[in-house]
Amino acid sequence: MTPPSDAAPWITWFGDDFTGSAAVMEVLAFAGVPSVLFTDVPDAPLVARFAGARAVGIASTARSHGPDWMRAHLAAPLRWLHDRGAPILHYKICSTFDSAPTVGSIGCALDVALTVRPAAAVPMMTAAPVMRRYQAFGHLFAGTAEGVFRLDRHPVMARHPVTPMAEADLLRHLAGQTALPAALIDLEDLAGDPQARLDRALATGARVLSIDGMDARTDAAAGRLIWQNRDRMGLVFGSQGVEYALVRHWQDIGLIPPPPPAPSAGEVPMIAAVSGSVSPVTARQLSWAGANGFALLGFDAATVCGEAGDLAREEARVAEAAIAAATRGISPLVHSAAGRDDPAVARFRAALSRSRCPAEEANQRLGEALGRILDTVLRATGIRRAVISGGDTSGHGMRQLGLHALVALAPTLPGAALCTAHGVGPHDGLQIALKGGQMGSDDYFGWIRAGGGPRLP
């Protein structure tokens, strides 16, 4: 096995959405691995600015696109990451395996990625036990406030508006997206001789190796298996569970020391936030925020399906209300819906059905509109800490702010850290958190205002 180079990164990653991409950086950075996340392929000066990074990532919106888009757009950033020379290139997917043959296809991504970085097989680790994502004998389970559910019975994922999960067996789900043969390394294998199981799977022609995960012990075994086979399997798919597993192994072998104490960014009087998520988790967070001093401001998402003038007027109306709230010392929180049962969701779907706008384009317009509102509010008020909530929203919204790189600043809860953003323009140095719809505690927005730092949910 080739030891990690002092010059090259130890790992590079490509995220299929912005919030998940930031979650990978969070795991590595707070374990003491210098990390940077770019919002696109960076230019030479930006690369030089972060020359000491041991982990380098690129965020994308691939999860919200179809296979044609993926085949046209994935190879270039993957090639740039491959050329960094890291022994592992990680294609980051959602810890709830959000995907379908027609949108966010993990199978299509596998096919494309293997043309950039050929490998004997691709380890795939979706489980992230730290985040209550568990895989047992090939089936994925995800935790909520109500308990832990098999994915096809999960209250959110079984009813997801874009990628509903009718199958918890990930290899069965994946078989509808790629013809690559696959095998499972299960809990019994991890407790016994996982290397022998891996070798048998390769001998039978497996090209994708799904790895179970339940706890710290299985994490460490998976991390060891991935790292020890990096020379022939340098392409890895999975959630931030890949990084959790690698960090455990790197600590076990002394490559990195125990992590330093997690910092806090300190409390600020106000933050500004936008949300395009319809998740029940986000709905509870909005409810908490409204009861605890935030100004909840509804944005009519149906306008993204109509005339440009109507959308511009709605953006101006909401931005004006947000600026007025900030003038009164109240943190503005603009949202497109307060959960999937909000009547605003039905209005949006009705407008979408009446229009000729494809759903993918409408979601992009929504994220861009919320990003423009946030840009206007930040410029007018001087607020220097912000949140963008929603995986798809975050990617499209970030690009409206002119930000090109993120560095982790302070943890909140796993998967939604506070970061420092870098770019050209007035938002350089902005503190921002990108929160997936299902991430965070009920008081998440208040915790960001408080500055994050170590605590239990």
Please name the defining characteristics of this protein.
single chain, 457 residues, alpha/beta, Rossmann fold, Molybdenum Cofactor Biosythetic Enzyme, Chain A, 2 domains, 15-stranded mixed β-sheet, three-stranded antiparallel β-sheet, 18 strands, 38% helix, globular
Summarize the structure.
This protein is an alpha/beta fold and 457 residues long. The protein folds into two domains: 242 residues, Putative sugar-binding, N-terminal domain (Rossmann fold), CATH 3.40.50; 179 residues, 3-Layer(aba) Sandwich (Molybdenum Cofactor Biosythetic Enzyme, Chain A), CATH 3.40.980.20.
Largest sheet: 15 strands, mixed
How helical, in percent, are the residues? 25-40%
N/C terminus separation:
40 Å
Q: Count of DSSP E strands?
A: 18
Count of distinct structural domains? 2
Total of DSSP H or I helical runs spanning 4+ residues: 16
Estimated radius of gyration: 21 Å
Residues in β-strands, percent: 15-25%
Overall morphology:
globular
Would you tell me the structural class of the helices and strands?
A: alpha/beta
**What's the CATH H-level homologous superfamily of the largest domain?**
Putative sugar-binding, N-terminal domain
CATH topology of the largest domain: Rossmann fold
